[in-house]
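Hi there,

I know you've been waiting on this one. I reran it after we fixed the sequence typo, so this is the corrected version. Both the input and the resulting structure follow.
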Amino acid sequence: MFCDKCGGLMHPKEGKLVCMGCEGEQAIKEEDRKTIMDHQEKKEIAFFDDVDTLPKEKILCEKCGNNEAYFVVRQMRAADEPETMIYKCTKCGYKWRR
């Protein structure tokens, strides 16, 4: 979903689409509703679907005190920013990042 005025990326806000560039607004088209709903449902980080293949690290879980967690490394921001380490406790499943 791109802005008709400037071509910028649109995002849903208060029942309409708002441009991230020029802040122009558009009504949400019926064909865009499914895409928006799918995206909103996927906001949960799904990096830990297959934990059997993920590496583990000895790190203290803040929630249960376990000392082992699965981890993944993701580039969350621009390339000149450091990567983010995302952890999931092997015992309680608590997720955090560092």
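Quick highlight: The radius of gyration is 19 Å.

Best,
R. S.
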